[in-house]
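Teaching assistant here, posting this on the class forum so everyone can see the example we discussed in section. The complex has two components, and the goal was to see what a joint structure prediction looks like when all of them are supplied at once.
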Amino acid sequence: MASRIIVVTSGKGGVGKTTTTANLAVALASMGNRVVAIDGDIGLRNLDVIMGLENRIVYTLIDALEGICRLNQTLIRDKRIENLYMIPTAQSKTKDAVTSEQMKGICEDLRNDFDYILVDSPAGIEAGFRNAAAGADEALVVTTPEVSAVRDGDRIIGLLESMDKSPIRLIVNRIRPQMVKKGDMLSVSDVLDVLAIDLIGMVPDDESVVTSSNKGEPLTLSTDSPASRAFKNIASRIAGNDVPFQDLDGLDSNGKGFLGKIKRAFFGRC
Amino acid sequence: MGLFTKFFGSQKSGKIARDRLQLVLVHDRSDISPEMMENLRRDIITVIKNYVEIDENRIELDLEREDSSVALVANIPVMTVRRQRGKAGR
């Protein structure tokens, strides 16, 4: 199978890029793929703590670029799961430490050894984002059902299109089905209407995301929670499987809501 | 809007979010750089001057957003219309 390089991005900060990257990396690896997750957020690294690998860092991506070590020395093997690796970035450098060309080079070097290379992009639309996206073939755009996050997502989608990333697919994170039902939150279909790109997953707001980040154990490692199932479904769709979309309205105690029925009528699988 | 909410109760915030989002995106997506706007203005003037004499200093050119559409609105004061020479208008 040809190796795929996917950048995980959003525009706005704090919508769940790093959590998404970590969970998808774990889920893809547990499906039997060789996976590496790269922290593309130089100077503000966080993928290491979300994955619980912060104590195992010896060399960073920047060390490899500066010739202090070889690229494969930066790979941290996740002992909890086979075929999962993480490449940390430097915490003490700034975004200028890497160029787009260097990032492309690194991604190409890794292509031979991995099925999936996930790059966790920093927030923003500047050099950091451009470098993180430089080596990627395709992109995942993470947003939450908020005006500000969707707006920034729209901007990022435009930039990714101009960089010829394809496919560019959307993840709507932190959905609160009860609030959507009451009409107090943008629904996934609202978001899809305005952004007009393909949906690859929707993730409900889930307290277990907080506890998992407290512990440094991505949800998809073990927990069976609504968010965990959502991330596993996304991983499966990335791998090319046709997974029906989770019925988000069915996640709460109330079962099937009126809005859910309407949404299903219009959107089929949503 | 004020009357509407008075009679029908307040609008759901999800709907408000959707409306605001649509407006803000129409605005974002129609952003034309000042440089591009200036070029557009210059080209329009050049074309129009072939037909009528205009007051270049009083030209107003702007993008106007209404609901979910954008229009290029130009207000170009005409001084005199050029005399038509022959049928081809040359």
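For the discussion questions: The first strand of chain B starts at residue 52 and ends at 54. Residues 20 and 63 of chain B are 19 Å apart (CA to CA). Think about how each of these relates to the inputs above.
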